[in-house]
Design goal:
- The chain is an all-alpha fold and about 200 residues long.
- It has two domains: about 1-50, Homeodomain-like (Arc Repressor Mutant, subunit A, Orthogonal Bundle), CATH 1.10.10.60; about 65-200, Tetracycline Repressor, domain 2, CATH 1.10.357.10.
- About 75% of the residues lie in helices and about 0% in strands.
- The protein contains twelve helices and no strands.
- The protein has helices at about 5, 10-30, 35-40, 45-50, 55-75, 85-100, 100-115, 120-125, 130-145, 155-165, 170-175, 185-200.
- The chain starts with a helix and ends with a helix.
- The relative contact order is 0.11.
Length: about 200
């Protein structure tokens, strides 16, 4: 295999798509590199040229999915005078990100394997929840500096907001008792989360 092939971004994505399919079907422990290679349409040798281990491949897949989803949530988030509108928009996108089919698949896989493979849980946490908290913390800090919010611990408040946005929907979706997001319920949840958040941290003009 040539160096050009080894470094091919197209081949890299091809492998990650195959990994996504097999991990989703077989779980982490049940997935084999042979099955992933076959699904991706590459040789096993080629697969190992890109990823030295199954753990490295899983972490790369999770990181890519988390980065893609977080860019959709926070990519166009702007700090302006409309604090409530901004929180409502972020809250809605957060709900749909966390409760999307691919988001649920990664979460369930990670939780299922966390006790046996704690390094996978760490990879997911750092690429997903921790990174999301960093984005949200930075967004909140700008509103704090503008005098619109009074928050002693912005990172903690960011985590609180994420938790509020998962009320009822999170449990039902993760248990498979809600097959798709109820938009009416999601709207109610997000509006309630924003109201509670602003009642706690909002600054009266």
């Amino acid at each position: 295999m040539s160096d050009t092939d080894v470094l091919s971004p197209e081949k890299h994505q091809q492998i990650l798509r195959g990994a996504a399919t097999i991990f989703s079907q077989d779980g982490y422990e049940g997935a084999s590199m042979s099955r992933i290679a076959a699904c991706a349409g590459v040789s096993k040798g080629t697969l190992y040229n890109y990823f030295a281990s199954k753990a490295e491949l899983f972490s790369a897949w999770v990181a890519q999915e988390c980065e893609r989803k977080l860019s959709l949530v926070f990519g166009d988030a702007e700090v302006n005078e409309q604090l409530e509108a901004g929180l409502l928009a972020l809250g809605s996108r957060i709900v749909h990100m966390m409760m999307s089919p691919s988001g649920l698949t990664i979460y369930r896989l990670t939780v299922a394997e966390a006790s046996k493979f704690p390094e996978l849980a760490r990879s997911f946490y750092e690429a997903g929840p921790a990174h999301a908290t960093q984005f949200m913390t930075a967004w909140l800090m700008q509103h704090i500096q503008a005098g619109r919010l009074a928050i002693p611990d912005a990172a903690f408040a960011a985590e609180q907001f994420f938790a509020l946005c998962q009320t009822r929907i999170g449990m039902l979706r993760r248990l498979g008792l809600m097959t798709e997001i109820d938009d009416t319920l999601a709207k109610r949840v997000v509006e309630g989360a924003v109201t509670m958040f602003l009642n706690t941290y909002g600054v009266t003009p």
